[in-house]
Amino acid sequence: MDIMVQKAIFFATQAHAGQTRKYTGEPYVNHPIEVMRLVSEVNDDPEVLAAAILHDVVEDTPATITNIRIGFNARVAALVDDLTDVSKPEDGNRATRKELDRQHTAKASPDAKTIKLADLISNSMSIVKDDPNFAKVYMKEKRALLEVLTEGDATLYKRASEMVDSYFANRS
């Protein structure tokens, strides 16, 4: 395993220490590691894999983009910045906030969109399984998000699209 990827796992493990996944109670860091694993199926660039592991640290921990830039490099920081939601609670209701985040994601690099696709796949699997009521809202949001992720990896895009399509096909 590349040293940058190892360093990202260590950084994310420290940053997410004490955090758990909502539905399973497992250590939160398992999610970014799963996202990295999904990305690694289609991309072996250590900077992209490091960003996949770090994709939630700015949103969910005290870590900053500057911390990422100093600890890793400008490209990893730019990818994490592309993956960090820009909306704040004061921006309005959930639909308004998700639209702001979708507009931010639309401008992201293809590599960031590939990571976002892996994140969508990982989160969708657990939410559909563990929170069917929230999944109704969440999967509708993911259907809209897919519209701005077409520049991401084609294999992950197809997998994410099929997951979303299957969810709605099974509800009609």
How would you describe this structure to a colleague?
The chain is mainly alpha-helical and 172 residues long. 69% of the residues lie in helices and 0% in strands. The protein contains ten helices and no strands. The chain has helices spanning 3-15, 30-40, 46-54, 57-60, 65-71, 74-83, 94-106, 110-130, 132-146, 154-169. Helix 8 (110-130) runs antiparallel to helix 9 (132-146). The radius of gyration is 15 Å and the shape is globular. The model has no long low-confidence stretch (mean pLDDT 96).
Please provide a brief summary of the model:
The protein is mostly helical and 172 residues long. It has helices at 3-15, 30-40, 46-54, 57-60, 65-71, 74-83, 94-106, 110-130, 132-146, 154-169.
SSE blueprint:
Layout lengths: L2 H13 L14 H11 L5 H9 L2 H4 L4 H7 L2 H10 L10 H13 L3 H21 L1 H15 L7 H16 L3
- Morphology: globular
* Residue fraction in strands: under 5%
What number is the mean pLDDT?
A: 96
* Series of secondary-structure elements, N-terminal to C-terminal: HHHHHHHHHH
Q: How much helical structure, as a percent, in the residues?
A: 55-70%
Distance between the termini: 44 Å
* Class inferred from helices and paired strands: mainly alpha
Say how many strands there are: 0
Low-confidence stretches: none
State the assembly state of the protein chains. single chain
Biggest sheet architecture: none
The number of helical runs is: 10
Rg, Å, rounded = 15 Å
